[in-house]
Amino acid sequence: MSRPDQNQLSRRERQIMTIVYRLGRATTTAILAELPDAPGNSTVRSLLTILERKGHLRHEKDGRSFVYFPSVPRAKAGKSALRRLCDDFFGGSRDQVVAALLDLPPSQELTDELDSLAAKIEQARRRERGKDDHD
Q: What is the CATH T-level fold of the domain 4-70, as seen in this structure?
């Protein structure tokens, strides 16, 4: 089985994963009900099979239905996707990623987000200083 962080997802595959992460567990019918401009049932089943093959989903049989659930925790999958985004679009530069995020139109919660980000930066600095002390 492939590792999820080595597989790019199509738009539809990302939509399905978003639905499954939100619901926790989902049947094809539940996924179809949530998909915008939903394709046919067989198309969704094919996409679910592809997502299983790629290692993103697993399923259990419940009566006549398959119930799908993520094989990787959402936070881990998100970090993997962010790592790919950082590498693909920002040459691996974390500061360019953060700069791009800060360049987005401000939201109502921007001040709180900036305070939270500043605290996380300080935590990362303390971790790095701790590593340097042990080297």
A: Arc Repressor Mutant, subunit A (1.10.10)
